[in-house]
Each structure stands twice: as structure tokens, then as C-alpha cells.
Amino acid sequence: MPPDPAARIRRFHRAVTREAGALDASFLGRGRPLGVARVLWQIPRQSGDLTAIRAGLGLDSGQFSRILRSLEREGLITLARHEGDGRRRLARLTGAGADEVALYNRLSDDSAKGLVAAAPNSAVFLAAMDLIATVLNRGQTEVRLADPDDPAAQACLQAYFDLLVAQIDGMRHDHLPLPDPHADRYRPPNGAFLIAWSDDLAIGCVSLRTLVPGLGEVKRLWVAPDARGQGLARRLMLAVEEQARKLGMTQLKLDTNAGLTDAIALYQKTGWSPTQAYSGFPSTHWFAKSL
Amino acid sequence: MPPDPAARIRRFHRAVTREAGALDASFLGRGRPLGVARVLWQIPRQSGDLTAIRAGLGLDSGQFSRILRSLEREGLITLARHEGDGRRRLARLTGAGADEVALYNRLSDDSAKGLVAAAPNSAVFLAAMDLIATVLNRGQTEVRLADPDDPAAQACLQAYFDLLVAQIDGMRHDHLPLPDPHADRYRPPNGAFLIAWSDDLAIGCVSLRTLVPGLGEVKRLWVAPDARGQGLARRLMLAVEEQARKLGMTQLKLDTNAGLTDAIALYQKTGWSPTQAYSGFPSTHWFAKSL
DNA sequence: CATGATCACTGACCGTAGTCAGGTATCAAC
DNA sequence: GTTGATACCTGACTACGGTCAGTGATCATG
């Protein structure tokens, strides 16, 4: 119904930059320049790692240094030597600093609450925001090792199981308990759990466990619907193969179900060969790959 | 599945400000400060009306004046006296200016194309952007008179008819032809067509026609699903009543269908009284109101 | 024709963001 | 120990956005 895509995106862009400006202005409301506020706000998120904060905000080293000194002068942070690397320093919030961060968090939360309340359907609205953020974050997706008991890992598995139920005929949810009582199988040195991150949201996962020494099994490959079509499944598979090599495995197996057609196509394209059955329902296809 | 709403909105905000920054940077790529580029870009959109451009961008009068002179020095615009108001001036693009604007448009279109291509499902992605823009633009919605043959009006009616088909049992789309062969009935002095604008997207409409001199009929009240819950239908009804008064009408009628429960509730709350039937299917309810 | 409001322009000023060229201390590698 | 890279700091500089007070021209109003 509406006009051409470029016009719609421009409208979105106008709406969103105005909103961003309003939020920035509320950050400025604490009497501190925006750059300084952003650094302060990032310190707890990156647990004080100066390099990570600077890289995340894309700041010049000189400017960053000045911002830190300004925060120090305000008594909001203290800078301590990094243990283990004398070149680096670690930022730590003082009590007053923590209070300020909490205040900024409240400002941002309030604006978030107002937004959600204004939407006709908050679940749909938040899902739309997730989708857009995921698309905009494409190319910034990072695959990292995670603990299988991490809440983000649990969320991935939950989504994965939901997908199985939806796509596999005869599948019932209670076939796969959560949290996984066998989490330890997916921790080094037995196995691994990998999560694909889009900023701080988990949008994909894959896991690896040992069947017998030297032989691993890849399980639970999942990619969020919003993130499909970016080659993320392939990246996760490459990453899990690398983990397998690091754990000294020389061969991998996996099982899957005919309902997961995209996954099967991917395995066939990336060096996996059909192999004989080694597991039961819901599996209908089995693959193996030598490392 | 994902974490708390505030965190999701913050992630959205981060993703979107980074994207906006990237687009701004590409605007800067033409060797012109962003503020200057934005003004140049807005001139054709507002057909050179300096006051409208300045208000739209929220610029200080002094700063704006300097930006205009910089564009003049570059040979991209000429400033002419406003006919009718000697205090005001009118900006007009030169040939070189029009070329620059076209180039900026291409830059923005390219970035839009890239975005749409990156989404797993472009229709869903664009709909998500429309929803978010509509929610963010809440409070900036404007109701204005429109010509019933305007493409935006046609788009509204199309959406309205689609809604009727979806909500009314037995309704078929071909009952209501488009474009409307009787558009003239909805133009002054016979009637009126009102559109609610969210930026440059039409998100609601209502129309008015004359039944007999002094007696009007309100028809085709529509609000986009994204924009529900903001009291927009009420605003449209108030606006159309005002138009009716301006056209010298003293009484209004309308018909509606039991499937449109929200509309019926609104009429009952805003001074409309049930009246006897004056039209057939798909109507099931009839209301009247004296002005 | 006086009044007050509006529109546009000018000059002076400020804070912030951002760049650049050094400089110092530390680390890892040979 | 030497070398080169890394992490952080400093000082000098610029551009840009934004504010403010004051000016002159024009308009609508009574």
C-alpha cells in the first residue's frame, strides 16, 4: 500500500533520528556533554575495559583520555593499573559514579517504557525493533564461546526447541528438557557451546559434544528467523568445526530431520557426507565430516 | 524469548544511531557540513519555503541564514523575494543545486536498497519500519484536507476497503470500485476528504459528502492498524465535523457495520445517536448528529 | 500612521567533537 | 639488550553546531 521503499526508509530514518536526538538530549540533561555521558554509561557494560569502551564508541585516543580525566575530576570513576599488563588501565565506578549510571539507566528505561506504552501492540512493536536492529547489525555479528548454562544459551535452546516443534511432524516439546541436565557435556574439554551475538542479543547458536574420544557430534544449530540469509549458519558451523579441532577431534557427526531443509542443504554444500543412522527420532538424516 | 523491553529498545537505539551516523557520514562525503547538506536536501521537499525548512530542521535563525549564504556562495541556490510578503525570501535550486540534491537522493536510495536487500523478508522489514516510525511520530500527526484523487487518498481507500473485506461477513472487494468514479462528491463545496499524516505517510482518512443541502454524510473512516490507540479516529471525526460546519451543514448521518465494533463505540461516545436506516448492505447500524 | 509582530540578516561568542603530531611507559619477541 | 608494537597521555589546532543581542525591512492592526 505505501509508497516506494526508499521513501519509507527515509521516513523511518527521520523518525528515528529525531527520537535519538530526544534521548541524547535527556542524557545531556544531567549537565554533562553527551560524549562524557556515553563513556560513563559504557563503563559497567564493558566492566571497565578501556580499550573495549574506546573501540565500541569509536573514539579518538586523545579525546577518550580527556573524557576519562573529566570523569575522574567529577569523582565518578577511579583509574587503576591493569594487573598483568602495566600499559593498560582499568576504570572503576565510584559510589557517586554508580549512582549516576543508575540515573542514566532510569532515564533510558523511562523513555523505553513510554515508547512501549505508545505502541498499539507492544510485543509486535518490540519484535519489529529486534528485526530492524538485527538487520542493521548485520556484519557486526560475533560468534563467541559461551557456557551452556548461560541465560542467553538457554534462550537460544528454547527458541531452537520451539522451532523443532513447529517444523517437525510428531515432535512434542517435552522431548527436550530445559535447562539441559547434561550441560557439562557441552563444556570444554568435553564439548563446546557457541553463540552468535548481534550486539547483546543472541541470534544463533550451535553446540558440540564428544561421542567417543576423537569423534564429536554437532547439535542444536539454530539461527533466529530475523537473521536468516546472512550466512550465519555457515559461520556457526565453521566456528564449531574449529572448536572441534582445538579439542583434538578428527571426525564429526550430526543428525537432523527432513523438516529442516535449509540445514540439510547447508551440510551437503559444506563437505558433510551422508552416513549411517546412529540415533533415533526425530532424526531422519545423518551426516559425517572428517577434519 | 529475548530479555527485558528496555534492553531491547536500547539495542535498537544503538543499532539505529550507528546506521544514522553512517548515513550522515555519507552525506558528509560530498565535502559539505551535515547541516548545510540537510538544508539543501530539504529545499525541494518544502518547495523553497524558508520558514518551513527552518522549522522542520529546528535550526536557529542565525545559523540558518549562514547556511543559506554558504549554499548561495557554492552556486547551488538562488534567493528570490517572496511574492506577497516582502519580508520573506524563497530558495530556488540552480541547475548545479538540483544535481547535488539528485546525488544526495541517490546516496540515500542506495543505502535504502542495501538495507532492504539485507533483510530476510523485505515486506516484513518495511512494515516493521513503518510501524516504528508511526509510533515514534505519534503526537506529530497532522490532519489536512486532501483531494480525493490524490494517490495518498486512493491508498487510504484501498486499505479501508481491504479492512472491510476482512472484517465484514459476506463483503466482497468488487462492491467498491477504485478509483472512485464519484470523487467530485468529496470535493468542496460538495464534501471533503481528510487525511491524517504521519510525516509523509497517510495513516488515516475520513470523507464527507452532501446528501441534501444542509445534511451531510460521513463515510470511510479509516485508521492504519499501526496507529490505533492514539485517538486518531476521534481527531478525524472532530475534523470532519468542523469541515461540515464550514460547508454550512447542520446535520450529519453515517452508516456502519456491526463488524466495525471500535467505530460504533466511538460514535456512541461522541454524540452520535442511532437513527433509522437510510442505506443497505453492508450497513447494519445508522447514526445521526446535529451540529 | 503609529504600534507591535514577524522575517531575515549580522557579528560576536562558546562548547563540543574530532584530528594530529608528538611523548612516555610497558610488553612481547628475538 | 634491542626492536617494534601497544596503551595511554598531552598540547595545539580546527570545524561545526548552537546561542545571543541587535539591526533593518516588512507586514497586519487599529
How is this structure best described in words?
Two copies of one chain form a homodimer. Chain A is built from nine helices and nine strands. In chain A, the strands form two sheets. Chain A has a seven-stranded mixed β-sheet with strand order 3-4-5-6-7-9-8, sandwiched between helices. Chain A is globular, with a radius of gyration of 23 Å. Chain A has helices at residues 5-28, 34-45, 50-57, 61-73, 95-118, 122-136, 151-167, 232-246, 261-269, and strands at residues 77-81, 89-93, 142-145, 192-198, 201-212, 215-223, 251-256, 273-274, 285-290. Chain A starts with a helix and ends with a strand. Chain A has two domains: 5-118, Arc Repressor Mutant, subunit A (Orthogonal Bundle); 142-290, Gcn5-related N-acetyltransferase (GNAT) (Aminopeptidase, 3-Layer(aba) Sandwich). In chain A, helix 2 packs across helix 3 (50-57), helix 2 packs across helix 4 and helix 2 (34-45) packs across helix 5. In chain A, strand 5 (201-212) and strand 6 (215-223) form a beta hairpin. At the A-B interface, helix 1, helix 5, helix 6 and helix 7 of A face helix 1, helix 5, helix 6 and helix 7 of B. The structure holds a DNA duplex (30 and 30 nucleotides).
